[in-house]
Automatic annotation (TrEMBL):
<keyword id="KW-1208">Phospholipid metabolism</keyword>
<dbReference type="GO" id="GO:0016020">
    <property type="term" value="C:membrane"/>
</dbReference>
<keyword id="KW-0808">Transferase</keyword>
<keyword id="KW-0012">Acyltransferase</keyword>
<dbReference type="InterPro" id="IPR002123">
    <property type="entry name" value="Plipid/glycerol_acylTrfase"/>
</dbReference>
<keyword id="KW-0594">Phospholipid biosynthesis</keyword>
<keyword id="KW-0444">Lipid biosynthesis</keyword>
<keyword id="KW-0472">Membrane</keyword>
<feature type="transmembrane region" description="Helical">
    <location>
        <begin position="6"/>
        <end position="27"/>
    </location>
</feature>
<protein>
    <recommendedName>
        <fullName>Phospholipid/glycerol acyltransferase domain-containing protein</fullName>
    </recommendedName>
</protein>
<feature type="transmembrane region" description="Helical">
    <location>
        <begin position="188"/>
        <end position="209"/>
    </location>
</feature>
<dbReference type="GO" id="GO:0004366">
    <property type="term" value="F:glycerol-3-phosphate O-acyltransferase activity"/>
</dbReference>
<comment type="pathway">
    <text>Lipid metabolism.</text>
</comment>
<dbReference type="GO" id="GO:0008654">
    <property type="term" value="P:phospholipid biosynthetic process"/>
</dbReference>
<dbReference type="InterPro" id="IPR045252">
    <property type="entry name" value="LPCAT1-like"/>
</dbReference>
<keyword id="KW-1133">Transmembrane helix</keyword>
<comment type="pathway">
    <text>Phospholipid metabolism.</text>
</comment>
Length: 458
């Protein structure tokens, strides 16, 4: 009987909590409990950082730099750049591909290489040798698909330094945090996520039967914001929106891509139409639920490779002013919250207005990056729900238009540069798909031509 009474008490408590959560989301109110929780975590992290600093002060500077991956070697061509409060490490690159609208074909490259008369000058290739050695040690692409390095321990990330045993106070805090995350937060978050998905499915099914019109569009916008607000509670999301006067209401919205929850983060503020490949499992449930309430573009795997079909569907969607703005992640893959990589030109060929959005996560509370080649969606959700929280900033940037005589690639690079600058991210030219495939021959041949030009005598 005592055991049953405990179960009843827990069930009632959880039910009341969910009702309270849904009610707050419905009336768009917050008791700011998550922000107070995040502020408390910051104080704990600061205490841990100070304790860690005392430990490190007892070791020599060389071992300290090794354990924290600090790249302060004056012999390296790196420089620190402060952007929007974020410190970036930029390396002077000499092997960068130059992308043009009309990529040169192989025969032209071969002819160029053969026709060049080289007068060898050894010192001209020293910077290439140096860049090659640096790329072997740590290339710019591979490092973008690993977890972002933290400046100090957050009582969460796995390390080989065993910071949890610095002193008995840190050990106690770590044990309490571990217990809270796995015995309280994770079960509660799983329950909220389960209820949130069911609630989203029910709400979208109801509004799906309403006749099309302005009243339905407004109701869908309110309901989706409400449902995604509930789902954001499953990861204790704290989202700061900036420059809301630039919030998109039509056209195409493009953003840098770190995680599948990027869409959730943006949908908590306004409604978007989504484009992507059809999925099964958990993502498939969400896709079918969203499709009942608002227009989205879902492709089968084979159809998604047809660029012309994708472009035509995009044009049809954008041409209808009643459709919500369509949300696109032009990188095509998740990057680890430190950089912005090559934007695919497809969404910039459609025409019309482009609304750039920059998203930057705070890695101290949890790593939002999804390494899809290493973790399944289920494993990723487990990591999110056992993190302290997901804290991020979203910047709505002024709308941008393609200029006359500007190619789609140049326009994409211009938009990418604006997003990188605002988010404090490194602007890289490399294709994010390099984590799955080998570099294109055209890129290698372009570097050969550039190398020949540098070897020529003045």
């Amino acid at each position: 009987m005592f055991f049953l009474s405990i179960i009843d008490t827990v069930t009632v408590t959880f039910s009341l909590f969910i009702v309270f959560l849904i009610t707050l989301s419905a009336i768009n109110k917050s008791i700011k409990a998550r922000r107070a929780y995040v502020n408390l975590l910051l104080r704990v992290f600061e205490y841990g950082r100070v304790s860690e600093g005392k430990l490190n002060s007892n070791t020599n500077s060389r071992s300290r730099n090794k354990s924290h991956h600090i790249t302060e070697d004056p012999n390296k061509s790196e420089k620190l750049v402060a952007v929007n409060g974020n410190t970036l490490i930029n390396r002077d690159n000499v092997l960068l591909p130059t992308l043009t609208e009309n990529t040169l074909d192989k025969e032209k490259f071969t002819a160029t290489i053969k026709d060049e008369k080289i007068s060898f000058n050894f010192e001209e290739c020293l910077d290439y040798i140096k860049a090659g050695v640096e790329a072997i040690i740590e290339d710019e692409v591979t490092s973008r698909f690993e977890a972002e390095q933290l400046r100090s321990w957050n009582l969460l990330a796995r390390t080989n330094c065993r910071y949890e045993f610095i002193n008995w106070k840190i050990t106690l805090i770590w044990v309490i945090g571990f217990t809270v995350r796995y015995s309280i937060l994770m079960p509660l978050r799983v329950f909220v996520c389960f209820v949130g998905v069911i609630w989203l499915t029910i709400c979208t099914a109801v509004v799906g039967y309403m006749p099309e019109g302005e009243s339905k569009r407004q109701l869908v916008n309110d309901i989706l914001k409400h449902c995604f607000s509930v789902l954001s509670s499953a990861i204790s999301a704290v989202i700061n929106y900036h420059n809301e006067e630039n919030r998109p209401n039509t056209g195409i919205c493009v953003a840098n891509h770190t995680s599948p929850i990027d869409a959730l983060v943006l949908m908590c503020d306004t409604t978007y139409s989504l484009i992507g490949q059809r999925h099964g499992g958990f993502l498939g449930i969400l896709q079918r639920a969203l499709a009942r309430a608002s227009p989205h573009i879902w492709f089968e795997r084979a159809e998604a490779k047809d660029r012309h079909a994708v472009a035509e569907r995009l044009k049809q969607h954008v041409s209808n002013p009643n459709n919500p703005p369509i949300l696109i992640f032009p990188e095509g893959t998740c990057i680890n919250n430190t950089s912005v990589m090559q934007f695919k030109k497809g969404s910039f060929e459609v025409g019309g207005v482009i609304y750039p959005v920059a998203i930057k996560y705070d890695p101290r509370f949890g790593d939002a990056f999804w390494n899809s080649s290493r973790y399944s969606m289920l494993q990723y959700l487990y990591m999110m729900m056992t993190s302290w929280a997901i804290v991020c900033d979203v910047w709505y940037l002024p709308p941008m238009y393609r200029q006359k005589e500007e190619s789609a690639i140049d326009f994409a690079n211009r938009v990418k540069g604006v997003i990188a600058k605002q988010g404090g991210l490194v602007d890289l030219v490399w294709d994010g798909q390099l984590k799955r495939m080998k570099p294109k021959k055209e890129w290698k041949e372009m570097q050969q031509v550039e190398f020949i030009k540098r070897l020529k005598a003045d």
